[in-house]
Amino acid sequence: MVDPTLNTGRRPLDGVTVLEMGQLIAGPQAGCVLAYFGAKVIKVEPPGKGDPIRQWRLLDDEGTSYWWQSIARNKQSITLNLRTESGRDLARRLVDKVDVVLENFRPGAMEKWGLGPDTFKESNPRLVYTRVSGYGQSGPMSSYPGYASTCEAYGGFRYLNGFADRPPVRPNLSLGDTLAAMHAVIGVLLALLARGDRGNGQVVDVSIFESVYNMMEAVVPEYSATGTVREPSGSTLTGIVPTNTYLCSDKKYVVIGGNGDSIFKRLMKCAGREDMAVDIRFSDNAGRVEHEAEIDDAIETWTSSTSSSEVLSALKLADVPSGPIYSVEDMFNDPHYHARGLFEKVGAGTREVDIPAIHPKLQGTPGRTDTAGPEVGQHTDEILRDLLQLSDDTIDALKQQKAV
Fold this sequence. Notes:
By secondary structure, the protein is of the alpha/beta class. Helix content is 36%, strand content 14%. It contains 18 helices and eleven strands. The strands form three sheets. It has a six-stranded parallel sheet, with helices on both faces. A three-stranded antiparallel sheet has the order 7-8-9, covered by helices on one side. Strands 10-11 form a two-stranded antiparallel ribbon. The chain is elongated and about 85 Å long.
């Protein structure tokens, strides 16, 4: 169950109602963040098994994924059969009652069902209609199916990630989906702010590939101005030295960022190379970039003969940015993670599990996890009764029609 000591005060999105239409990762992760900070998120699922992510990866003893308990936290679940006209009609009526629609179907699907944003311009002019797709709602690629994997490649991330002499590397996460979710949340908040008390809503168009593209830093202006294509650089960062990953004598890796001028001097003294700390060739970043291999060799000579704990202790005392490379097991064993409240407990089947707290941390109106992911259609009757004012007899008839 959820920790009863959690703050139960107001949250910044209290009073905002979101209709989440879509499945898997990008749209639902955006809904997760909005629900964490107080929005009432009504998740629309197809009758039966619901969102496929319920069955993805490791499952609890009731056959539900642990991921679902996290990504669907605080949400209410309603089942609607959008393949039926009566199911689509219910969806339209719900859209007219909410502040935000969050959908991540392929572009054109919502219009095909009569649920596109133009449908609601007159009936719900304050609606913030948020669309998440692979390649955006316009342009020659818009109709292509967009998964995180392909969009990370198209958006430029995969080209840069890895080593020059090997195939591009994928992190073992759906990074593009999560980045798109964060951009969708930003878009919703900006549109709600622009709407204010009396203004209109608008369409928020988020794509996975553009969310990745947004992370490209100086790649575009550097190419535009000089024709330079930034290449993959392994564990280093092109044009900034030293920042790398170094192997220690206990076969563990540490990350060291010694690229500030004064920081570099302190780092090289730790490494026993005071001569390099005062060498004029390395006094600024431009010089260090020119001699990157020599600097990295000197640092790794030190780390390879020293345990990771000794390296990190010395660098901490010298105020040099550095750290270990953590697995999830390391996170659970680290007191700083617990001091920062990074784990929240929810029920999952017959056990409690930890799920990640969601940031940023707000001092006055913090987010929180109230409930784990709901059962399929757990709130269907309640939502139809309370939001659409339907009678129990009407709800029963809709069930007979297989609309819900």
